[in-house]
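Collaboration report, partner site 2.

Our partner group contributed sequences for two proteins of shared interest, and the home lab folded both. The records are reproduced in the order in which they were received, starting with the first partner submission.
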Amino acid sequence: MPDAPKPGWTFLTNHSHVLLCIAADPGIRGRDIAERVGITERSAQSIIADLVEGGYLTREKIGRRNQYQVHPDLPLRHPVERDHQVSELLRLVKTPKRRASA
């Protein structure tokens, strides 16, 4: 629903939205993440850098594109959720993998 109004607030942060996008499509481009999450491309790149620095993602350059690997066994960062792992979040909000365009 591209024309649906965006809610004023959500239950998940932009960091979790970016992580979920990457988990669904490890080869996704920053501009596509930005569009899906509703943030700027610069913000998406900054969040990716945070996730890499925190150990939640590994980034590998393949040709001109980045390929990401999510590390699901790490704990969530906030004290309220730190007893839970990233894998639990991924299972809870699992999104289908997108097919590459032919």
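Second partner submission, folded after the first:
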Amino acid sequence: MKKLAIVISLFTTVLGVRAQAVNNGGTAVTPPPDVLVVKQNTFDFGKIPQGRPAVTTFEIVNTGSTPLKLDNVQASCGCTTPIWSRDPIEAGATAEIKVGYNAYAKGRFTKMVTIIYNTNRTKTLTISGEVYAAPASSAPENSSVELLKQIN
């Protein structure tokens, strides 16, 4: 009896999921058009010195007819920091998302930043580049300066 109840329950669940994916006319439901457009979703910093943070700005546009609110903007790791306005983006308006990278670790990097909006929609931004070891001092030592220091 328990097995029959489980089978009926699973069958009902499958039918319920199928019914949600199809509208009354029998065709698949299409999602609403995407209203968030990112003008450029990737940025390559090129070569940046270690320990010198780098920042870029991504421009986004609300192509919808109602204000759009970004629910969250989150980076794939702690070395990347997104900054954005919590205010709604008016219809047809543009906004900016600044993305900073701390450049602590040497080597190539590729980091993702996910924009979450309209409760369950997402867009992904990508930053990349290469961090090189910066020189220990700002300029090479000058032996003439050391000689002058000894004389004085």
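Feedback sent to the partner group on the second submission included the following. The two ends are 102 Å apart (CA to CA). Residues 10-15, 17-22 have pLDDT under 50 and may be disordered.
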